[in-house]
Specification:
With about 120 residues, the chain is of the alpha/beta class. The chain is built from four helices and five strands. Helix 3 crosses helix 4.
Amino acid sequence: MHASKEQQDSLIQIKKRSDFLTIQNKGRKWVSHGLIVQVAENENGHKRIGYTVSKKVDKSAVKRNRIKRRLRAVAADILPTGAKDGQDYILVGRPQTLIRPYETLCNDLRWCLRKLELDA
């Protein structure tokens, strides 16, 4: 079950490396088996989302891209309704992201948001 098109539009993609580094350095993070969530407040009041999977996770670009696609799908299902406005979110892929069941990944994201006290 995927979020509706208008809900997906509420998530703005983070693309600049400088934004990623700011969130990484000034934000908070929580680690689960399937993914890592990094969060920082932003000044524009929107929900922004970014995805990253390093070569340390897997050398294969095909597998890293598959991990990113899975992270995008999880974010599209959970973040539009399950996250607070005015926050930047970065989902970091882990080796387990590729093999964990989809529903478990969704639960991992919900769990991280609860632990960071950011569930809406």
